[in-house]
Design brief:
The protein is an alpha/beta fold. Strands 8-14-13-12-11-9-10 form a seven-stranded mixed sheet, with helices on both faces. Strands 15-16-19-18 form a four-stranded antiparallel sheet. Strand 15 and strand 16 form a beta hairpin. It starts with a strand and ends in an 18-residue tail after the last helix.
Length: 484
């Protein structure tokens, strides 16, 4: 078992778990069991964790113990809970599911699902030619051991040149290649964060970043983003000055999930405030290449850094392909060497062949990224049009880049909607996945990375089940494979 969740903690995560609109309300025990399954589905409640005793949870939720007893019984029947007299009850994996590489659950028969839980594109056509060219380059590396903790020099130089082209002079010594952006974040946290250290994050934010911080036992504080405007400068700077966090994790370019773009003036002020209070900034630039509608992206946050307070992370997953596990860290040269020393105890180095593929893709970056921007703009507009037609009560701010919409729903039903959508073949990432303690139930992240026709179809299915979430009675539960 990985630990125990207390009654008050589970109650916060469950949020508004019952009394959903519909012609036929589910019994409270079924609604409670379904909400627990939803927490397991999107990773907010891990496998192997011991749930609170029935009496404790009943007191925390202010319901009868009989309701909790019946909910636990249903969870045992569906394979989501195991119990042993005297030892308690803990979460488990149903027999018809498997754990995906992301750590979340996926059913064995989910091939036909319209997956809006993943905010990533299919591979570009140029990938095949880049892979062929990489195999031709590989022989010159075969005489060595193949371990390059900071990455092969060709790729480090290519990434450094890209930063320099954005107005931030960078050398190859300031670049470390990683196995994806999430890996880059994990290494930075291993180096810079002590257990119990305070970290400031945006709310909402990237859920896998929250998972990485939880894994490092960080104390997380949040700065809430306005749905239409993004960062409130005085509140963000005030949070830095008041909490004086060890680290702050920010996504200034087309923020995941809201799509907001941080203005240059605030970037400069954030760096100055971080230096004044001794906070290091981790800047996630995963979406920096994906601007649309002629939007000009401000200079990198690290442009305003004079004291090595800014560590930038990025990668190939969003503009190129998630299956190519290439990311990077940009920091001072001494920091890169310290990160390499940390890395040796984790995974030694990234695959040489994958790095060579990345070199060839970056050489063709101008054409690939231009095609991606056109593709994403078409798909975004198709999704916006479908939402306006089928779900006009939902509020959406049009993003000027990135790959996601952040929709404000007409009620706090995000988790329930995600569970119901599974039954009509649509996988969703509910709002609470992007925050802490069951908040953000009025919000839903909708990526526009699927073909336009699939997005329109998915919205139609969601609209069909929105206003009567309980009509189908007892449900078969499926779990999402990835939140990316």
């Amino acid at each position: 078992m990985t630990g125990q969740v207390r009654g008050v903690q589970l109650a916060r995560l469950l949020g508004q778990w019952h009394a959903l609109p519909g012609r036929r309300r589910s019994p409270d025990y079924a609604a409670l069991a379904g909400s627990v399954r939803g927490l397991l589905a999107d990773g907010r409640l891990p496998l192997g964790v011991r749930l609170p005793a029935e009496r404790e949870l009943a007191e925390a939720l202010r319901i009868s113990r009989t309701t909790v007893t019946a909910a636990y019984r249903q969870l045992r029947e569906t394979g989501h809970l195991a119990s042993r007299r005297g030892a308690g009850s803990w979460t488990m994996l149903p027999g018809n599911h498997r754990v995906a590489s992301t750590g979340l659950w996926t059913p064995l028969d989910d091939r036909e699902m319209l997956d809006l839980g993943v905010a990533a594109l299919a591979a570009p056509p140029q990938l095949l030619s880049a892979a062929r060219a990489a195999t031709e380059d590989l022989p010159r590396y075969l005489s060595g051991a193949g371990y390059h903790p900071t990455g092969i020099i060709e790729l480090r130089e290519a990434v450094a040149e890209a930063y320099t082209a954005r107005g931030l002079p960078t050398s190859a010594d300031q670049i470390m290649v990683t196995s994806g952006t999430q890996h880059a974040l994990d290494l930075v946290l291993r180096l810079a964060l002590t257990p119990g250290g305070t970290v400031l994050v945006e709310s909402p934010t990237y859920p896998n970043a929250l998972a990485a911080l939880a894994g490092r036992r960080a104390r997380i504080t949040t700065h809430g983003l306005a749905a239409d405007a993004g960062w409130e400068p005085d509140l963000l700077l005030g949070s830095l000055r008041q909490t004086r966090p060890m680290l702050a994790y920010l996504i200034p370019e087309f923020q995941n999930p809201t799509g907001h773009l941080m203005p240059a003036s605030l970037r400069e002020r954030v760096v100055a405030a971080a230096h004044a209070v001794g906070t290091d900034l981790i800047i996630d630039e995963s979406f920096v290449d994906l601007s649309m509608d002629g939007t000009e992206v401000p200079p990198p946050v690290a442009t305003y850094d004079r004291h090595s307070r800014v560590v930038s992370i990025g990668g190939m997953s969003k503009p190129y392909w998630g299956g190519l596990r290439i990311g990077w860290v940009r920091a001072s040269a001494p920091q890169v060497q310290r990160l390499a020393a940390v890395r040796v105890g984790v995974d030694m180095a990234s695959p040489v062949l994958d790095q060579l593929v990345a070199v060839h893709l970056l050489a063709d970056a101008e054409a690939i990224v231009a095609d991606r921007r056109v593709q994403l703009a078409v798909q975004r507009d198709a999704l916006l049009g479908a939402l306006a037609h089928r779900l006009p009560e939902w509020r959406v701010t049009v993003p000027r880049g990135g790959v996601t919409l952040w929709a404000e729903l007409d009620g706090p039903v995000s988790s329930a909607l995600a569970r119901a959508a599974e039954e009509v073949g649509v996988r969703l990432a509910p709002g609470p996945r992007f925050g802490l303690d069951g908040t953000l139930e009025r919000f839903l992240r909708l990526p526009f990375t699927l073909p336009a026709a699939d997005l329109v179809e998915a919205v139609g299915r969601i609209a069909a089940i929105r206003y009567d979430l309980d009509r189908a009675g007892r449900q078969r539960w499926r779990e999402p494979s990835v939140i990316a």
